[in-house]
Automatic annotation (TrEMBL):
Organism: Streptomyces pseudovenezuelae
Any Pfam family hit: Hydrolase
Source superkingdom: Bacteria
Protein name from the UniProt record: Phosphoglycolate phosphatase-like HAD superfamily hydrolase
PANTHER family tied to this protein: BLL8046 PROTEIN (PTHR43434:SF16), PHOSPHOGLYCOLATE PHOSPHATASE (PTHR43434)
Length: 223
């Protein structure tokens, strides 16, 4: 029986304070394409992969040929922030603290390529991050379990030996579907009750709050 344990982390809104940047840049991408989408609705969709986010907001009866244009516009707009993405307080310290306790650190994110590289630079903890399951590694994103499962397989642990930390309902649902214990942070702007309803077994204000409470968290229970 393996003694390894995996701490799997979402990135946007969980380790890096980017959710509202995504809201604004998706809003502008839709505006450029002739769609007026309320920012509150976009906020609720952040965390989904690009195609799923577009379908969630514009519906299945949209013209899917426009999807690639929306994705490209969002990426171009969001890329203007790559050199100044803000890590959330104590994000890197949290990952190092868990690694020091014997946890294998893996990321599970819908970002990929240059975007993922920019996010990892912001976190500045590559010395303890084993790897990342990105949009390039799965065909179906959250809330499907595939990204969490892929990250867990990178760490080579069964679901009962992993904890997943995220900030959206989609994160919690993906963790539940993979049998991984879900923990939530509020730094992405989603209400605590929504996260608990989706399966969160612990809710913290942000990475700094989780770091401060590690000794009484689900991580301590599984050590």
């Amino acid at each position: 029986m393996t003694t390894r344990r995996a701490a799997i982390f979402d990135v946007d809104g969980t380790l890096v304070d980017t959710n509202h940047l995504h809201v604004v840049t998706w809003w502008e991408a839709f505006r450029q394409g002739g769609h007026r989408v309320p920012m509150r609705d976009i906020h609720r969709a952040v965390g989904l992969g690009g195609g799923d986010l577009i379908e969630y907001l514009l519906g299945k009866d949209r013209d899917p040929e426009d999807d690639e244009r929306f994705v490209a516009a969002h990426h171009a707009l969001y890329a203007t922030y790559f050199d100044r993405l803000p890590a959330l307080d104590a994000a890197g310290d949290l990952l190092r603290a868990l690694a020091g306790r014997g946890w294998t650190i893996v990321l599970a994110t819908s970002a990929s390529g240059a975007e993922l590289s920019a996010l990892r630079r912001a976190i500045d903890a590559d010395d303890v991050i084993l790897g990342a399951a990105s949009a390039d590694d799965v065909t179906v994103g959250k809330p499907a379990p595939d990204p969490v499962r892929q990250a867990r397989e990178l760490a080579d642990v069964p679901s009962e030996r992993a904890v997943f930390v995220g900030d959206t309902v989609w994160d919690m649902k993906a963790a539940v579907r993979d049998g991984v214990l879900p923990v939530a942070v509020l730094s992405g702007g989603i209400p605590s009750e929504d996260l608990k309803t989706a399966g969160a077994q612990g809710v913290y204000r942000d990475p700094a709050d989780l770091l401060a409470g590690l000794d009484t968290s689900v991580f301590a229970d599984r050590e």
